[in-house]
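Example record

The entry below shows one chain as it appears in the dataset: sequence first, then structure tokens.
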Amino acid sequence: MKTFFTLLLFVGMATVSYSQSTLYGVRAGLNVSNLDFEPDPDFRNMHRNGFFFGGFADFGISNSLSALVELQYSAEGAKADDIKADYIQMPIMFRYTIGDTFTIGAGPMASLKTWKNKDAFSTFAFSAVGGVEYMITDELFIDARFSYGITNILDEDINGLEAKNNNIQIGVGIKL
């Protein structure tokens, strides 16, 4: 895990040193998340509505390519109290701008659990994230993202189940 965070830090520093222009900003919005269990659980698995907020730096690589590094808090998991999990997340999205207003992007996301020292959840999770962004003005934007969990988020064996986070984010942000 230390190696992975060192790699993320290196990628972030390398991006900063080679970037042509850098934009900073904040974004917040709503989450609709759920856990994808394998095999299917014997209980009702309902989605959780939550929220997220965070700050980002968008490093320009060229006129149409950029690397977005973000630090955000996100309430995820499922609706039942014992399968909710909140995370501090760091998505790194490589983005392509189409025209002046539309951007698409994808990349990896590392998540660190923020609560309950002793529960069934592992401390670290890894996901893939993709999204779209639409600029309303030069500073204000709306966006939508989907993250798909790659790692099992359950630390303990619970009836032979594995669970992965799936999350949809609808947000609004300001570029400073």
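Notes for this example: The longest helix spans residues 2-18. The helical segments are 2-18.
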